Write the structure tokens for this entry.
Amino acid sequence: MLETKVEAFLNRHSFKLENLKMVVGVSGGPDSLALLHYLKGQKEVRNLSIVVAHVDHMFRGRESFEDALFVKHYCEQYTIPFEMVRINVPELIKQTGNSSQIAAREARYEFYAKIMEKYNYPYLALGHHGDDQMETMLMRMTRGSSGKARAGIPFTRAFHKGIIFRPFLNLTKAEIEEYCKEQGLTPRLDPSNMKSTYSRNRFRKEVLPFLKLENRHVHEHFQRFSEELQSDETFLQELTVQQMNTVMTKREKNKITIDVKRFSIVPIPLQRRGIQLILKYLYNEKPGSLSAIHIDQVLSLMQNSHPSGKLDLPHGLHIIRSYLNMSFQFDSVNDQTYHFEVHEPGTIELPCGGRIKMSFIDREFTETNLVFALFHVDKIKMPFIIRTRKIGDRMTLKGMSGTRKLKDIFIDRKVSIRDRDTWPVITDAEGTILWLPGLKKSSLEGIDYKAKQYILLTYDK
């Protein structure tokens, strides 16, 4: 049954196993062991060349080392070349600050690339299955991923000097486990796969069972949806590249300039992808703090009736609009000013460090700490503006009449001149200063018992 389904899946993708030279990533768990066993069965029929690569991440001491010995023993039984490495991933986590999953994945794929290079094998086979696909797509959609990221795990993709392929994406976890039983396989089990501390495991244990009760073929629908998203996104990316070639007026290593007027007539779906292409080009490595809200801010700056403005993105990337030109650049900006518009709930990462978050809450909120500010929804003109100070800035103070200069507030609170220049100032759309986070709140802030909903701003430095 498994062989038939995999064959149909490979045929649907016009993927031929014949004469392939491949590295197979095998952890010893049900998925990868079943994949190895399946490919071993096809070895003679299809003239396959196989080498197994195993990584001991050293999370579980002797237990994880025994996983390696288990895989090695299987390979010895069938005279399959076996390569392994022990990598101290817990130590890598301390050094890099990456999560356990990211650190382990990077170490694992780096080893796979080395083995592909060593044997000159252009293919890497991995045991991801339909449940993995569902978990990945649900997690990414929940996090707000966009573009190709929403499509989840591709059947094939370029890797190192070759190609990764995943022949089990049309199978469920249960089908793979049943195959292991039928073939007399006794895979190793990793207890961390059951811990609810990992978000993937929570989707696996709580969300997927519900979806499968609704439709036992749901994994096939997710796979089809994934493939449609990938093909649609590929087409849209091609159109985006064509359009961006018509709107870019300058392209350098650290700077791209576009014509705002030409860009404005590009269809909106291609505009968003165009900005993403620019950011991908300029950032060697996309910052984790970069999100969809930054794309919205760039579009807002471009559509603003004011002919000039500036945004500051993570890691020192500056977006500068001057009449009909907009530049994305890392150089030529020496001051520390910034200007953000917040139209909807989200988090703004400040160039000087810290973040400001906007959300909607009901009247039951009672926090009075200065790093929080509450505003009656109906009394504030949106969007909020988060900016640095300007000459002559004044604000009303909660509980006092009249206004005070921000300069005097900074002096009273003994804020250094350097910090004054980068301190966030929160205003409404008309420029009324609402809040000086951590220092002073305006007379518009606070509980209003007629309000049914509040805007909550929080400042985390």
